[in-house]
Amino acid sequence: MIATTKGKMTTGEAAERLGVDHSTVSKWASIGCNGIFLRGQKIGGRWFFTEEDLDKFVEACSKPDGEDRR
To answer: Where are the domains of the chain?
Structure first.
């Protein structure tokens, strides 16, 4: 299966949408934040994300500690 970037955001675009630095987005995808990882896809060594990836990450991070974060 050939991966495509169509409909996906770059790390920079995702950072702009989330209001953070691009390095923060890369960190969230690679090592997570408080046990929650930003789902994405690496294509050619670069991260790409969908709107759904970002929305799910923001939703999971906004839940109080102790709630199911899946």
So the answer is: 9-62
